Amino acid sequence: MIASFGLAQFVLADASRRAGLPRYRASALFPSRAAFLVEVARTIAESFRQAVGPVTGAAGLRAFVDQYCRQSRAYPDAARTMHLILNECAVDSVLGEAIRTLSDRKTAMLEEFFRDAAKESGQHTEAPQADALLLLATLRGLVAHWLATRDDEALEAARGRLLDRLTLAPPLAA
């Protein structure tokens, strides 16, 4: 529903109607529109995390990149909904604060993947938090581009290049 119509006119009653519930049922379950949107985003993020699987380190980074692109293609409405919610954070500070928690968790997970990958390879990662933010922002931008163009070949090519380039800096000299 959000993916089809956007958030500009979205109210909780729309969610109730879409689910076939009485008009004010969603309002009884969620204290605010922002709380509902956070739950939608959390659900999407959790299903994505499950698709990545129980991997860490370099394998976790590769799985994250791979699944971010594949899940977006497989579930474009979920990808579009997540991007709409992320964009809404720019104008809704309450929603932004709540969504920041989800983004912080994802960034922390990626940061840990970068640290583990460095340990696995005996290499040094200078700024794992910056690397995590850069990777997440790159993937979000890539999927936003794909949502606008639906160019599957370009998405696959970019995914492949990103996987090829996902390396750590060379070891520091002793």
TrEMBL record:
Gene3D superfamilies: Tetracycline Repressor, domain 2. Pfam families: TetR_C_6 (PF13977). Residues 59-163 form the BetI-type transcriptional repressor C-terminal domain. It comes from the Bacteria. InterPro entries: BetI_C (IPR039538), Tet_transcr_reg_TetR-rel_C_sf (IPR036271). This is BetI-type transcriptional repressor C-terminal domain-containing protein.
